[in-house]
Write a structure and sequence with these properties.
about 220 residues, Inorganic Pyrophosphatase, two-stranded antiparallel sheet, 3 helices, about 15% helix
Length: about 220
């Protein structure tokens, strides 16, 4: 046991140990240290912050990369899908230019909703997601798009190719949640407009370019 004030020693690399490449001694930052996926914009990687069972909104801490409590959900609404973001994306000037009335993007990584037939209750996980569409919304004059995707290996939703192929009630739930989850008493719901797969691809490409412009690194699309 360490005495008060003592620190655990830093272990030197063990030459007898072998790890697959790449191996991270330190945990990668979920926004900056993980790829956007194997084939963006069609197939992307999603980092999940919130599940459909959460009554508290969790959000990535942009500085240290850990998940923190943002706020309890004000209303009884729960997310209708897995919710998180696509790594190495940024809602910047290009994403903002795609939304009529937006002054700019919101400066966050691009949000994504991922539908899964089986309940997934864990957060801080990575999922491979097939993009099928998205939702346009403005938050304080800033573009705040929500990409909609399905779990790529899902036996029920995995063959869906476009948002129009989903049951309408699922799209209505997504629209209702995002139009009201920040709603204050006597305020009006936020306008949320669905769009198709091709528009979603355009938004993702713009977010990858916005990220590259600000943070550098390889431009994957």
């Amino acid at each position: 046991m360490l005495a008060s004030g003592q620190h655990a020693p830093i272990l030197a690399p063990d030459p007898s140990m072998s790890f697959p490449e790449p191996f991270y001694t330190w945990r990668p930052h979920p926004w900056h240290g993980i790829s956007a996926g194997i084939k963006p914009p069609e197939i992307v990687q999603a980092y999940i912050e919130i599940t459909p069972f959460d009554l508290v909104k969790y959000e990535i801490d942009k500085v240290n990369g850990f998940l923190r409590v943002d706020r309890p959900q004000r209303t009884s609404s729960q997310p209708p899908s897995l919710y998180g973001f696509i790594p190495r994306t940024l809602c910047g000037r290009r994403v903002g230019a795609l939304t009529p009335g937006a002054k700019k993007g919101d400066g966050d990584p691009l949000d994504i909703c991922v539908l899964s037939e089986r309940p997934i209750t864990a957060r801080e996980i990575l999922v491979k997601a097939k993009v099928i569409g998205g939702l346009t919304m403005l938050d304080g004059g800033e573009a705040d798009d929500k990409i909609v995707a399905v779990l790529a290996s899902d036996f029920v939703w995995g063959e869906v190719e476009d948002l129009a192929q989903l049951p309408q009630v699922l799209v209505e739930r997504l629209r209702h949640y995002f139009s009201t989850y920040k709603l204050l008493p006597e305020a009006s719901p936020v306008a949320v407009t669905p769009y198709n797969r091709e528009r979603a691809y355009e938004v993702i490409r713009a977010s990858l370019q916005d990220y590259h412009e600000v943070y550098g690194g390889p431009l994957v699309s």
